[in-house]
Every structure is written in structure tokens, then in C-alpha cells.
Amino acid sequence: MPETGSTALLEVKDLRKYFPIKSGFLIQRTVAQLKAVDGVSFAIDKGRTFGIVGESGCGKTTIGRTIIRLLNPTGGHILLEGQDIATLKERPLKDYRKKMQIVFQDPTSSLNPRMTVGQTLSEPLLFHEMVHSKKEAEERMSQLLSSVGLKPYHVDRYPHQFSGGQRQRIAIARAICVDPSLIVLDEPTSALDVSVQAQIIKLLKELQGKLNAGYIFISHNLSVVRYISDQVGIMYLGKMVEKGDTNEIFDKPEHPYSKALLAATPIPDPKTRRKRKELLTGQVPSPINRPSGCFFRTRCKYAMPACEKEYPEMVRIAEHHWVACHIYSLGEPDRIVEK
Amino acid sequence: MGKSFRWYRKKVEKIEEAASPLNIVTYRKLVWIKFKTHRLALMGAVILILLVLFSFVGPLFTSVSYEDMDFGSIFSPPFTEGHFLGTDELGHDVLVRLMYGGRVSLFVGFVSALLTTIIGTAIGLFSGYYGSILDRLLMRFVDIMLSIPTLPILLTLTLVFGSGISGIILVLTVFGWMGVARLVRGLTLTIRESEYVVSAKAVGVRNLSVLFKHVLPNVLPVIIVSATLNVSYSILTESSLSYLGLGIQPPMPSWGNMLQKSMNYILGTAMGVTPWWLTFFPGMMIFFAVLNVNFLGDGLRDALDPKFTSHT
To answer: Looking at the whole model, is its pTM more than 0.95?
Structure first.
């Protein structure tokens, strides 16, 4: 995982996104900050997939939307092919919009019900001047539709005439029609049934091979993330607690939260169920009023006095493995083993 | 199954045929096919066209003016020689006055509904889409407008602008757009957050373009329905304004002021009979106009909705 170096397609450094909580009648004042994303860093190479995993409300979706600048970051840097796009204004951003696209969870709501597939697909093509004539647009669209497994004559149909899986294919076609180098996949399979999920995942992998695009795959479906991602980051309350190579994280999670999260994956075998020890107790603290020090300490069974004082730094524990936990930053990994 | 079922089947087949991949039709054609098969809407459209012809072309075929008084036959009932729908207390011919009254009522109804809808939609769209301070200012303005007691202001305004057709339209528009604005704003707030709008923004599409390509078409069904309701509202309000002496003033007729004036006689007898025709005919005209505008609006809304393919 390249932390520095210019080869990375996307490098996110210390990304922060706070939502002000306002109150007031005509003149509104900010009374609190919801820190949805708070100092997240990671990098992706071309043609690779970075998975982001975490509970609901941990800031997964906000990260995705902030990276492609649907939301303006509060702080930090987003380096896309070496250029910092975190503070670019909308006009200079136009060229970068072409390079990054997003696929949403629910294809029913991500396609305009009053536009045909053709209209939906031609909007980005025309906006970015990727086609110059009607004929060219038609050719490009039928080529796009076949590359996502649909038929060219589907161009004149409306979204409601398709099944969920087909709709997601249309949404994917819209995302890839501008030849992006980065695609944010915000739970692209969560709204689909299992057999269709598999087809969509397969399609996404296939397209990645063709486009050589980097994917940010946001999901809470751990097995899907494991299958598709090259690297994984695990998030808790706006912070990334652990990141590294997928297999390493899934086989040897080190952060107590990651352990608990990964242990919560259902195991299709009733006998092994009893062996799962590390299940989480308690509730996720409010992101508006987070605990002092390490945010996870209220639910962590290894919590120690140091955890109350400050948030742990991200430390590198293997070549492709980083963890933010005092057990590692203070050099006491044995504590986990003891208990 | 009965006849109606066969009719329904035929309609579905027609629409499906139109939507099949081998038979590519444009959106406009599909809208027309759907509209054609919507019986009530078609009826509404035909009757409205007849009403418009009656009011705007009808007077060309008669030499009698709405002001002409036939003192020899006041309060003559319908089917009297020379007065097909009878006459009123001054000997005005009711049929002729209905024609001229239709000009006023339909014009006031449609124009003020159109203006109200355009203003309300524009304010609602911008308020809901851009949000923040603009939204707060516009919505507080709406609140203020709604909290003004309409009647005293109407009295003053009609005094200032006169009680002509343009004055009425102005007053109806100034006090009529807030409902539409609130409705459109509410929907825009939802659509603004929808993922197809976010997707369009991710592509980089400009705000105005998003507003007109994504938000407006999805607010349209509600706008159409509220516009048709506004037509009825305007026609009816014009009648009540006439009642207060603020609407169209006699001798110029409007369906509203004809109806209101007839109220003076409906409970008593004049020339030995109760002049029911003075109430009945203008009332029926208003009733048909309002009803058919609503049918037409319903049909338009369904026809414009791509999801809507059949109507049971």
C-alpha cells in the first residue's frame, strides 16, 4: 500500500468533514459539530480496490461523497493523480469530475424516473463533450449498454421497466461512460438480492480490468468486501482504526474493534458459533459528543488509562498493515493475547 | 368480463405496443397515446374546447350585445321566443350574457392560474433547491403573505387597480401563489437530496440545468394538479369578488356575477315565477368548467408520468 510516492491514483491525506449543527430562527449559529470524517488517510493505485468497512453512521458514505467532492471537505487533501482537488472551485473541478464517478446503493432512486436510459447516459456524455454527434452518442451508448450486459434497444426505456439488477447496471453504465479513473461504489450491492449481487460484483471486477480504474468500495457486507478489495480500511466514528491488505486484515485483525467487527460475520455452521468470543457490547457513542481519548474505549475490553487521554496514532505493524490503538502505539500487544 | 374490461385490455395493448423495442416511439407520442386513452381527460378537453368556442366564437353569431335590454320581456323563462335561455330582471339575454361571461371567467381563471403556477413554481424551486438564507427569506415572505387577511387588502387593491379583468387577475395572482410555492418547495427539498440529482452533480452538471432537467420534471405532476385546482379556485373567487362588488362590474357579465346577482331573486318570485334559470345556467357553466379542468389535469398528469401505463 503506497503511503507516499507519486504512483498512487488517489491519495487521501488527513481528510476531515464536519457537519455544523445549526440552530436559530433567521440568523443561525453553529452550536456543535458532527465530525463525520475526522482525519482519514489512505491511498489507492490504478486498477485496485480499496474497501471501506464500518458500522452504520461511521462516516463511510461521507468519505466517498467528500472524495468525489459532492461535499466540501472541512480539511485535508485529496490528491487525484497528484493534483489536490480538496479546495478546487466548481469550474476548475469540471475536468476532475470526469475522472471520478459514483454508484449508489439504491438504483431505484439513483435513476431519474422521468428520463429514459438514453437520456440518463447522454447527460454526462454531452456535458463533458465526449460525443459530438447524435450518431456518435448512440454508438457510444449501445456499446456502454452491452458492456454492462444490457441490450442496445434498452436505450428508449424508462428505469421502472427494469429489474433492480438491471437498474444497477444502468447506474454503472452512467458511472463508466466518462471513462473515470476512480469510481466510488457506495454499497452498490446492498439493495440487491444475493444472486444479483454476485453478478454485479462480477461485472464490476470485469469492468475494472477493462478500465483500469481504482475503486473505493464502501460496504458493510464483509464477505463482499473481502472478495473485491485489495486493501481495506476499517472505520469507527469517523476515524480509520485499521487499514492494510485485505487478506491480512481479515485473517489477522489487530484492532479490538476490527476483531469484534469481523467476528460478527455470520458463520454458516452452527457448531462454530459458540467459539465466537469477541462480540461488541454497548452502543456506538454519538458522533457529536465523542468520548475523550480513543473513541472505542467505552466498548473496548482492553481499555487502559492511556486510552482516556489521547487518540492513538496510526502505527505500522507490518509492511502493509496499520493500526490506531494504544496497545500497539505503547508497545503492549501482549495485552490482547493475555485476555 | 364485461365491455369495460375489453376496453382496458385494448388500451394496455396499445401502450405496450407503443413501448416495445421494435416500435420506438417518442415520449411525446407516448404521452399523446396515453392521453387519448384516458376517457375522462379526453372528455374534459373536448368540453373545455367547446366552452372556449362557446364563449369566444359564440358571440360572433349573434347581433345582440350583453348590454342590450329587452324591456318588453324581463324575467322571461327559457325557450321564450328570441331568448333561448330566458332573460334577467333587466331583460338581458341570458345566453348572450353566458357567452360574454365565459370570456371573462375563463380568461380570468386560466390566466391567473397560469401566473400563480409560474410564480409559485419558480419561487418554490429556487427556495427548495438553493436552501439556506434564500429559502428562509422566501419562506418567511410566504408566511407573511399568508398571514395577511386577504379581504381588506382585496378591497384596497381593487380600489387602487380598478375592478377590471386585469385588476382581478393581478389580485388573484398576488394572493394565490403561496400555496404552490410551498408545495413545490417541499417536493424540491426531497428531490434535491435524491440520488439521481446527486449523480448529476457528480458529473458536474450545473445547478440550473439540474433544476430544470431533474427537479422540475419530477415536480410536474404536482404542479399540474395544483394548477387545475387553481383554475377552479380563480373562477370561484372571481364570483365571490363580484358578490362584494369588487369583481367584474355590471353591465359586463361574468359567470360569477351573473350567479351572484341571481341570488336576489332565487328565493322569491318575479312575474309570478321563481327565475331559476338565472341561477342554474351560470352555475352549470362554472360547474362544467371546473370539473373538466380537473379531469384534464388528471389525464395530463397520468399521461406525462412514464410509470403510468394503465388506468383501471
So the answer is: no
